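Quick look at the format.
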Amino acid sequence: MSEEFYRMKRLPPYVIAEVNAMRAAARAAGEDIIDLGMGNPDLPPPAHVIEKLAEVARDPKAHGYSASKGIPGLRRAQANYYGRRFGVDLDPDSEVVVTLGSKEGLANLAQAITAPGDVVLAPNPSYPIHTFGFIIAGATIRSVPTTPDEAYFESLERAVKYTVPKPSVLVMGYPSNPTAEVVDLAFYERVVAFAKEHGLWVLSDLAYSELYYDGVPTPSILQVKGAKDVAIEFTSMSKTYSMAGWRIGFAVGNKTLIAALTRVKSYLDYGAFTPIQAAAVAALNGPQDIVEANRELYRKRRDVLVDSFAKAGWDIPSPRASMFAWAPLPPALAHMGSLEFSKQLLTHAGVAVAAGVGYGEKGEGFVRIAMVENEQRLRQAARNIRKYFQSLGMNSAGMKDD
């Protein structure tokens, strides 16, 4: 009996799991670890959302199987959100499906539309499901940059010109996880035009749509005229409403892709627990002050992180969106590589970050820092890091003194 399973052979060891295991062991030993590794929100959902969950859960009729596609009220609520936020009209019946989180939705769509040997264009570095969802489904990945500049479109041109078979899918995610890069509507216009010219489906991951700073809202690709001809977009309740563990997300857009995802989901799940879906309706249709409050809180954390870490000797670019900072390794420690640096930071400073190489080989030389601890803890992390750097003979510029 073979133990060499086809899909397991296509998956490398999960690099991020190494640091996660070290963090868990340290905490089990009683160490105080400041966890800036996993993007796990530390904030609660709005009180009225929790109350709605409890209210519906008390109904004896609410505990049977739910609807895999999502209850009608939730699909309408998401369509209304797109209308308010982006000015995009969506048909709740044919252009919206509820997913068990955006990660699971992307993976399910990969299963629905991918044949072994298909070529998929995906960003590098990238959130792992953007590549491995398709690898599990049997596809071959051709990497494109995350940086939304001319080099991005030059990379797309080379890919469609020289790749055999021709790529069929383009995956993107902005604001980017892990790099926190953002794009404007003009970028999406070029992407849609390129996709139509070359027969590509476009999968847009917009999970961080509401965590933007400096007063510039993030756009949706569906705002582009004709985008629904080629594009589907994934969003999530996880970060906007601090509902990560509830596993509620959405796919919206192209009817063909929505139908394919809906059909595959019908074989794989019965949908989220109905009280959770009802509570998600309350979140989308109810008071939206939580959205602005969370955005402001993460902005303050961003500023504290960038300022305090700079004083510790680690200059980090200020992210314009998302809940992450994409930090180059300090020059004096760049030789370690991102995984070893992450291990050393955990061991000697009690601070957990995510090694950039876990997001693709182009992530080497960086770590991802999640802003999921309060301002006091971020300052404590900076003090711990400063002591660690000083123990190595590093100065305030992140270099070793001669």
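Next, a different chain entirely:
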Amino acid sequence: MNRDNYRLMEDYMLSCMGDSAHDKEHIYRVLYNALEIAKTEKSVDYDILIAACLLHDIGRKEQFENPALCHARVGSEKAYHFLKDHGFAPGYAEQVKQCIRTHRYRRDDRPQSLEARILFDADKLDVAGAIGIARTLVYKGAVAEPLYSVSAEGEVLTGESDTKPSFFQEYKYKLEKLYAGFYTERAAEIAKERQQSAVDYYNALFREVSLPYQNGRNELEKRLQ
């Protein structure tokens, strides 16, 4: 990819960023992760991969304003029209669009091309390990969701079967389970290196918030008349 095209796409990406958990630094980390993965793969089209990485979250604003929308679908359409409007070939724009459309973890629409799979893996790496914990906490704070839920009996819930959104619920629903879902060997290796830090953090946080509830309730009962 020539530098002018890179800067054109980068400038457009920067104009679309606003979510602190999915900011421009997330985009760069995904791009750099993707380039690391791509070194271990054959016949990667870097023009498609770099464009898809730069533009993969440009639909986040629309989803944040209307949660019924899918940022991957919105972003793929925005990227397609942006590229076509700036003189890129329709076939190229379509390939970038498909990469962006299939990068989302929760969707059933799975990535097909090599570049789409690399983007998928690179994006998921930014949810793994310590960085994944940090980004999730930032996002939960932005949407005013709690760290955890408490049962009717006053016990901190693990998140395993919670129905209400919280950090613990997100950890059990998504973060804990993502380590087996990579398409490329290199991404799986990197994720494995990061996994224990996330496990340790969750366990430590659960212990630190649940013990006061267990011990404190007993002490409170002793003090109440």
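The chain is about 65% helix and 0% strand.

See the schema section for token definitions.
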